[in-house]
Amino acid sequence: MPKSNELPKAYNPREVEQRLYDWWEAQGFFAPQIDSSKKPFVVVIPPPNVTGELHHGHAMFVTFEDLLIRWHRMKGEPTLWLPGTDHAGIATQNVVEKAVAKQGKTRQQLGREKFVEIVWEWKAEYGGIITAQIRRLGASVDWTRERFTMDAQLSRAVREAFVRLYKKGLIYRGPRLVNWCPRDETAISDLEVEHEETQGKLYYVKYPLEDGSGFITVATTRPETMLGDTAVAVNPNDARYKNLIGRTAILPELGRKIPIIADESVAMEFGTGAVKVTPAHDPTDYELGTRHNLAFINVMNTDASINENGGVYAGLDRFVAREKLVSDLRRDGLLEKIEEHTLSLGHCQRCHAIVEPLISTQWFVKMQPLAEPAIEAVRSGEIKIVPERLNKIYFQWMDASHIRDWCISRQLWWGHRIPVWYCENGHMTCETTDPTRCAQCDSTNLHQDEDVLDTWFSSGLWPFSTLGWPDETQDLKYLYPTSVLETGYDILFFWVARMIMMGIEFTGKVPFDTVYLHGLMRHSDGSKMSKSNFRVGDNPLNVIAEYSSDALRFFILTSSSPGNDVRMNLDKVADARNFANKIWNAARFVLANLGDTPESLNHPFTQRPNLSLADRWILSRQGGLVNTINRLFEEFRFNEAAQEIYHFLWDEYCDWYIEASKVTLNGEDEAAKQNTRGVLVQVLDQSLRLLHPMMPFVTEEIWQHLPHEGPSLMVAEWPRGGQPTNENAEKDFERVMSIVRAIRNARSEFNVEPARRIPAIIAASEHRDSLETQREVLAFLARLNPEQLEIHAKLEPKPEQAYALVVEDLEIYLPLAAMIDLEREKARIAKEVDKARAELVRSEKMLDSDFAQKAPAEVVQREREKLASTRERVAKLEEQLNALNGAR
């Protein structure tokens, strides 16, 4: 990188960020420096969908993972952050089908082979968009190891995993209730179902009793599914229905006889307390039907039209059937009433069609045998989950009483095809290579299963398939198990738990030792970000273009604690941008004051003699900062670490040390100047190292202009813990700061012009000698007249006509006549007191009148808040007036 002692006046992230990223990548800094004598630090990226556009979920995982990677890289560890993308079966197929439709064709018309060929062409053309966008966030991943879930190597790993599980009896095929998308005509996972609060209706339907003695009324939100009812259920403790349990009802419109059963799962307070039971179309009813050995009647086709089991409604779309059925019930006097009802309705994440629970023959993985060792890995501490409170959720999901077998088949064409072949005799053959004969009857007439595997199956193998498994590659031997798995808490079960199960099953080792779970990004009002509720700050690329990648990253870090959601706040992103500008301007000051021999400023300066108090104070404060940041990083408390370095650089280094350094730099002592220059450089250098994992671009750009060794801040040495601190220097300089703050506050209260130098008298007790050495610093920072600054051990008598301040055990007197026209200031404040008191009386009278009863509550509350504020103002003004009247 070209070096110069001059930084441009303004920091331009648009010019810097892309240039630096390209340079880092070209230099090979992202690749691990393999050293078999050192334990590597490895993170695998949560593979984003190949169809994807950058969203805040990506921004969050990139921010946290890049922090971890840059930190460990600077610590000198062989560090790998492995990138890649997911083939995203249903999402990608949807995108390509839409493109094909624009040409007037369907995938069925093209045929499977041609359609898959087109998908691969699409992937080649558009598949790199998401990775290019992730680069904009500064992700220092090793692009030479980039993987794709349908690469040849990973596809081989997927088939190997399936075959092993199948032959072990952990994979089976059979009819079960699944989430079904009628538009894509495929089973989908729970994660692919988005539940939305929807205003619907509750239909009260009367089911005639078989003996003609009356009716039992049930309430339902989906009347079309009653065509598949095989029972009516009530709670056994519900006194209203005790005499009906065991009797028979008649299913309206179809005339099917169905039993009235009792089950404690029925909520007595919902609707009428009696519910229809449709085992083939409702998860709760499925369990209930299994317990009571009820018939399972599927009444829907794969496109959600009614099938032949629906009687006269066969062939109708589900919602058309609903309208006709409701009309028929009303006609026959069996519709008691309809109520408005809010319900949570599941939609397909990709196409937004309303999902139907449907009985379908699918492939499943038996989860309990895989879950047991995965539970023990977390319980024993072999894997640590951050935050620890999410252990409870993990255990609940994985518990044998809760976990369900995993539906792994999808009725798609894009994905890993199920490696099972059927012969004409119905036998199944499952092998890692395509068979030519049936394993049971030796038939050569074979056809492969049409379904593909759930995308989560291949991504469950991600930590080890990307390193060469099932082969014993050098990468697998050295880099596995990985170190930290970082992702959102919302996929703890869907991805993280499955990786743990698969890792233990296929490698005998846990896939990582730590799981760090971040929260979700929400709008500033707490609502969920979505395409239908899109706002300007929802797109990270827009935020980066406006504020910079560093600013977005730093906002995420300072606003996020493990497992907690974050609210997007562009004001805070702007604050982070301002922080970068603050550091930039501080660096410009440092560079402008390096002197003629900047190469002589190599640190450390900690042990140099004759350092000023300010020098010793800032070096001690930074030593403490290094220790704190190392501890917080080790504890994954990144938000606290970000806040610590923010306050150190902004409040201590910029606002105090740089200002204090001007006294020395503007003086005549050349040795002191060189010391201070060295401390300025050393503290800035070390601070940039600490900040680099959080804000990589601005820190690298500044560091390249400072005196330094090595090619890049990215591979510079990380500041080690155990740094020395100087308690006495910190106490002495903090006393100076307290004095300056007190004087600045007094100047502000009395409206003293900023440029005006004022006198001060300090009774410093035993601190007189140490404060005397800081005379110039006190005078400069507090805008005092050096010739009128008196520092005594004691003062007898006390000064007259002076404003008194007490700081710790010191007394400070500011002669008022030198600051203000005393009588004029008294008159001004007295006038303000009278005005404020009048406002106070007016407000009190208003609130004592009938105004408080008649006015809107929010108006009354505003008036009360105004009254409280006025009282505070009166008290403050009276305090100032009393101080002036009693000033010595």
Describe the 3D structure.
With 888 residues, the protein is of the alpha/beta class. 44% of the residues lie in helices and 17% in strands. A four-stranded antiparallel sheet has the order 6-5-14-16. Strands 10-11-9-12 form a four-stranded mixed sheet, with helices on one face. It has a four-stranded mixed sheet with strand order 27-26-29-28. Strand 1, helix 2 (56-74) and strand 2 form a beta-alpha-beta unit. The chain is globular.
What is the structure about, briefly put?
The strands form ten sheets. This protein has a four-stranded antiparallel β-sheet. With 888 residues, the protein is of the alpha/beta class.
Chain-wise SSE layout:
Layout: H1 13-27, E1 41-44, H2 56-74, E2 79-82, E3 84-85, H3 89-101, H4 107-110, H5 112-126, H6 129-136, E4 147-148, H7 152-167, E5 171-181, E6 186-188, E7 193-208, E8 215-220, E9 231-234, E10 248-250, E11 257-262, E12 274-277, H8 283-291, H9 318-331, E13 335-348, E14 356-365, H10 368-379, E15 384-386, H11 390-398, E16 406-407, E17 409-410, E18 420-423, E19 428-430, E20 446-448, E21 452-453, H12 455-459, H13 462-465, H14 474-479, E22 484-488, H15 492-507, E23 514-518, E24 521-522, H16 540-547, H17 549-559, E25 566-567, H18 570-592, H19 613-634, H20 638-665, H21 670-691, H22 696-703, H23 727-749, E26 758-763, H24 768-772, H25 775-782, E27 784-792, E28 802-807, E29 810-815, H26 816-819, H27 822-848, H28 851-854, H29 857-885
Parallel strand pairs: 1-2, 3-4, 9-11, 15-23, 22-23, 24-25, 26-27
Antiparallel strand pairs: 5-6, 5-14, 7-8, 7-13, 9-12, 10-11, 14-16, 17-21, 18-19, 18-20, 26-29, 28-29
Helix pairs in contact: 1-22, 2-17, 10-11, 10-15, 16-17, 17-18, 17-20, 18-20, 19-20, 19-21, 19-23, 20-21, 21-22, 23-25, 27-29
